[in-house]
Amino acid sequence: MKSTQAIRREKDVVNRAAMERQRLLDFLKNPASYKHGPQSVRIIETHISIVALATPSVYKFRKPVNFGWVDFSTLEKRKDDCNREIELNSRLCPEIYMTDSAVPLFEKDGRLNFEEGEIVEYCVAMHEIDSDRFLGNRMLDGGHIDDADFPLTQLVDRLAPFYKEASSLHFDPDTYYQNVRQPMLENLPPYQSYPIEVAVEMLDLLRYFFETSLEKHRRLLMQRMQDGCVGDFHGDLHLQHIVLPSQEHPSLCIFDCIEFNDAFRQIDRAADIAFLCMDLDYRGYRKQSEAFCKAVADALNDNGLIALQPLLRAYRACVRAKVNVLTSTNEELSPEERSACVNTARRYVNLALRYALAGTEKKAIAVVGKVGSGKSAFARFAASCLGVEAQSSDRIRKELSGLPVLQPTPDVMKPLVYDEATSEKTYNTMMELALHDAQTKGIAILDATFSSTQRRAEAIRRFSAGGIELLFVEVSAPDRVRRERLERRRFRPNQSDARTEDLSFLDAKYSAPDELPSNRIVRIDSSKGTKEETGVAAMKQLMDLLF
User: Fold this and answer.
1) Which residue has the higher pLDDT, 218 or 69?
2) 239 — phi, psi (to 5°)?
3) How does strand 118-127 pair with strand 103-108?
4) Would you give the DSSP letter of residue 250?
């Protein structure tokens, strides 16, 4: 147990650090602090740095922190890291830096300045880049861009020689495998805590995916190291680090690589490519992501790069989730800003799980089964994990009929609502919505009985025509359990109109999907656990099926 004196010393250190940070911020915010006299200064903070945008210059300082994976705890370490950043980023973006070494910050007569006195800090000085030159500002989240506006050829022409010319790195095979494996798992509990909004089941599924995928790809990872695919690359390759050419700077520029931890940068080139592809996928640019990945693989004659993408993109999504979780703990953020960070973290976890279930191809999952089997509960659980909407035939049928979704259909309306024409229209609409989900998000969930062989065959045909593989999850439960569930529906809102008295009639119409091959269907009994336990078990089976 710590003594009172030790606790007091720790508090003193924290208080001094806070005071020094505030003194630096006050200095940087003042336009008079800079020789060129900017009209105003904008400050950007992350958990490891402070950046002052003093147009037309930018000054980047390291915070005196030590998180284990980054250590800026001493002045000398911060100076070394500044020099390291300039050295490494000059490989792909030499024109961005104002000096070829760290810029000292002095203190004289108790005041900070950039000219003389005792050196108290170091920073990197850069030329400010017009905001419209950042590719991330062109390709906004959920936006649209024409193929001609995406610099595919320039990216490949810049990166392919970089990867080819870099010296390959070789490690002891077991050490290298652990260096790949450990960071993937350390983004998840128990190493990393997540807000309650990110369900523990989602993180359990990711851990299962990483462990099984790593083991599956272990030989490929080792072979790629032997083949020279592991080198000193970028480590943080995403859209906001790509600068488009201008009249003054005709070359595409890629900056801000990871300099503070060699292990994060000395990686398989497939991991570098995965980060940029993940960023494109996250923002809704799956078409550009697919084209870029294929073009780089072709330029490098590297098919293994594509095989590793689901694993490596899921990892990159989890890295971004962790960064947002860490940022959300900053007490200086407003409640709205912290909430936004948590929501962003959840979206990245959703994306990682989409890679886990669908890879980088487009997939659709039809959740089928008899009424009361628990299929809708599983469909909602899976959709929540994946960040998509479960396209439910019950909901769509009522919407098409102009009926309240959560209220029972009046008996007088049922002949019209459940006739063959309405059923056909319901299934067609559901599949159109799911096709759109699969095209834009990479995965879709359908919640419907799919009670006939013909209905299932038609669905497979339609999704195959769109280049989408359709898989099935058949959810079942004992008749006793199903009756109990249907009886409970009488007392709570529900999309389905099926009740206990309908059970025999509807069961007679249901034809089990026994015609489907084993590589297209997963079966789960929902009575053997909670809906979350059922969901996790079924999704793990899907991962085994897909990978």
Assistant:
1) 218
2) -60, -35
3) antiparallel
4) -
